[in-house]
Each structure stands twice: as structure tokens, then as C-alpha cells.
Specification:
single chain; globular; 29% helix; 13 helices; alpha/beta; 379 residues
């Protein structure tokens, strides 16, 4: 497939498809097969589709090469660049399980990198993709099982273990190579391991740092940093700004009733278990001991949470909600549920809102152990 794409006909066809409106058109495919070999047409159409999808991850997606699985697992450029900054000052590195090179592109800038992958197609694509970014000079590719590679002379390693097979996605926590092998790399060199953000935090040993990364409010991934690279035990990072919040041992955060403003923490903060740290840094309070919502009596601006103005705070009484929302001129709601059972889709239907008027956030939660509702709007 990759050879067909790199042929003169393949390159010409990919360029022709760059601005094609309907890549799935049967008429288009038939027309192209009259001018190009069928295998070239199939490969080019797939590649054009993948490049369009990849624009959400890579600024130079239109010059890169992908497989569907490789693109799915590849780190977004904004995430890999952030991670690469934490290897600053280190020389030669190993990128284990390179894939299509999403992290390799960022790791290679200014240093030599040993790029290891058992998939020859992905390794070839990784080299082509570093060429697209002008950083291929320092890459030394090795087609091999990462478990067989000698890391002598390497200052640090990054591992992105596969979380899917050619036919299915693995369960959260399962990977190839397994997490235990990845963790053991730290016995040889300092290492960072890319993890699924849903991984049980207890799977990472004491002494390691577990960092959760979000691009704006979308949780992207987690990284485990070995003790030689760790600077805290847990961390939440928000991109593209790179703001970071680490674990501390501060005093317990008091509770209070949310009457003026409510903070909805970034998912990186909640997954890192740093809601109380956020409360201490912002001078806010928890609405309930077990609920990851905070409240304040003045507006709070922070990259680690979305701040909402509370229009109404009251015990949860679903039958009264439609009339209460109409009285507040609310025509549509975004329902957020935490700590309170209920089917969000069914509640949307039962509210029967008109769609006219203001849009609000309806929070289903608990306040001091009691079922509670908050009607909020953005600042």
C-alpha cells in the first residue's frame, strides 16, 4: 500500500484528491480507475480520507501518511510537543512503539532518536512523517520487537504501547507490550509511558508521576513518568497553554452551598484527583465532600475549570423543573450529572423545553449529602 502511494501515479492522485468534495462517491472511484491502477486508487482514496481526519491532530496532515489504526493511536501534535518539553536537556532518546511517528516528530527536534517498531509499514510512515516536518535527520529506525532492543547509550525512553489489535480495541489497562514490561524499562533508563486516561491510577507504582492531559476541556491521555523524570505524584495539564497543577498536601477544603458561582473542573483535574488542590489555589469550596464541583462567591478565572453563574440553587425536585426553567427564561439546557442517578436523555424529553430563550447548564448533583439542582449560565 505505501509503495503504491509513493509511486509517481500515487503521489499525483493524492494531490488531485486533496480538494475533492466527496471522497466516497462511487462515480469518482469508477472515474479514477479508468486512469489509474485499482490498487493505487483504493490506497489514495483511503489516504485522502485519513489526511482529512488527521487535520484535527497535525498541522501538516496533508503531507503525512497514515493507517487508520496508526492515526487513531497517534498523539496529537499539541500533546506530543508538550510531552517533549519534559525531556529538555536529555540527549539521545528511544521512541519505543513508534507507530506513525506522532511523538517521534516532537522528540526528534534537536536530538537523535532511536525509533523502534515491529510494523514495517508504520515505521516507514514514521520516517516519511518526520520528513514532512523537516526533522528526519536525527532518526535511526529499527524494525524490531521493542523487548529485544538494546538501550545502551540512550539517555531516556518514551513508550507508547499498543492499546488495540488489528481487529479490536483492548480493555482499559491492557496493552502490547504489557504495562509491567513498560514500567520495567525504568530499571534501564528514565522512561515516560503513554497510557489510556481511564487507567486505574493505582496501576502506576509509588514514586512515579501520573500526568493527565486535556486539550482545552477534552481529556486526551495520561503519561506515567518514572522516578528519574517525576516532579510530583499526580499532575493535571491543560493545553494549548500548558498550564499545570500538581498534587500538594494542603489542608482539607471546607464545604459550602453554591449560591453565586460554580466551578466545573477540567476533566484532567478530576481524573488526576486534584479537585481539592484546585480549590486551594482558587480559594473556592467543595459543594459536597464526595462531589467534584466547587463553588465561590466571586467570579473565578482559571484554565483548570469552567466557571458558571448560579441562577438558582435548590433541592432536586424534577416535577418543578419545567416551571422553574420557564420562569428563568431558559429554553434549552445542557445537563451535567454527578453524584445523582438519572437518565439524562429521558430528563431532556420530560422537560419539554421550547428551545427559545437562554441556554443554561442544569446540574444534577448532591449538596451536603442531599439531592440538589443548580441552574447556571456561562459568565
Amino acid at each position: 500500500m505505501i509503495e503504491a502511494l509513493l509511486s509517481p501515479a500515487g503521489r499525483a492522485l493524492i494531490a488531485e484528491l486533496a480538494d475533492e468534495a466527496d471522497l466516497g462517491s462511487m462515480r469518482l472511484a469508477a472515474s479514477l480507475r479508468r486512469r489509474f491502477p485499482a490498487d493505487v486508487v483504493a490506497a489514495a482514496l483511503t489516504q485522502a480520507e485519513l489526511r482529512r481526519a488527521a487535520r484535527a491532530k497535525f498541522t501538516r496532515a496533508d503531507d503525512m501518511f497514515f493507517t487508520r489504526a496508526g492515526l487513531e493511536q497517534a498523539s496529537a501534535e499539541v500533546v506530543s510537543r508538550h510531552r517533549a518539553t519534559r525531556f529538555a536537556g536529555l540527549g539521545r532518546m528511544a521512541d519505543l512503539c513508534t507507530g506513525i511517528g506522532g511523538d517521534l516528530i516532537s522528540l526528534t527536534a534537536g536530538r537523535d532518536v532511536l525509533a523502534v517498531d515491529a510494523d514495517s509499514v508504520h515505521l516507514r510512515m514514521a520516517l516519511l512523517n518526520t520528513e514532512a516536518y523537516g526533522v528526519a535527520e536525527g532518526v535511526r529506525p529499527v524494525e524490531a520487537d521493542v523487548r529485544t532492543v538494546d538501550l545502551a547509550g540512550v539517555d531516556a525512553a518514551f513508550v507508547d504501547p499498543a492499546r488495540r489489535t488489528p481487529t479490536r480495541r483492548l480493555r482499559t489497562g491492557d496493552s502490547e507490550p504489557p504495562l509491567d514490561w513498560c514500567l520495567a524499562v525504568a530499571q534501564t533508563v528514565p522512561v515516560a509511558i503513554k497510557l489510556a486516561p481511564g487507567l486505574d491510577r493505582d496501576a502506576v507504582p509509588d514514586g512515579w508521576e501520573l500526568e493527565f492531559v486535556a486539550d482545552r476541556r477534552e481529556l486526551k491521555e495520561a503519561t506515567a513518568w518514572s522516578p528519574a523524570l517525576a516532579t510530583t505524584t499526580r499532575r493535571a495539564t491543560t493545553l494549548p497553554g500548558g498550564e499545570t497543577l500538581g498534587r500538594d498536601d494542603g489542608a482539607p477544603v471546607p464545604g459550602a452551598v453554591a449560591e453565586e458561582f460554580m466551578l466545573h473542573p477540567n476533566p484532567a483535574v478530576t481524573r488526576a484527583g486534584l479537585v481539592e488542590e484546585l480549590a486551594r489555589t482558587t480559594g473556592t469550596w467543595k459543594i459536597d465532600e464526595r462531589i467534584a464541583f466547587l463553588c465561590a462567591d466571586t467570579p473565578v478565572r482559571t484554565p483548570f475549570a469552567r466557571t458558571l453563574r448560579v441562577l438558582e440553587s435548590a433541592p432536586w425536585k424534577e416535577k418543578l423543573l419545567p416551571s422553574r426553567l420557564r420562569a428563568l427564561d431558559i429554553g434549552a439546557v445542557d445537563i451535567r450529572r454527578r453524584g445523582l442517578a438519572g437518565n439524562v436523555e429521558q430528563l431532556h424529553r420530560r422537560l419539554k423545553l421550547s428551545g427559545e430563550g437562554r441556554k443554561a447548564t442544569l446540574v444534577m448533583t448532591r449538596m451536603r449529602g442531599r439531592p440538589w439542582s443548580l441552574v447556571c449560565i456561562d459568565l
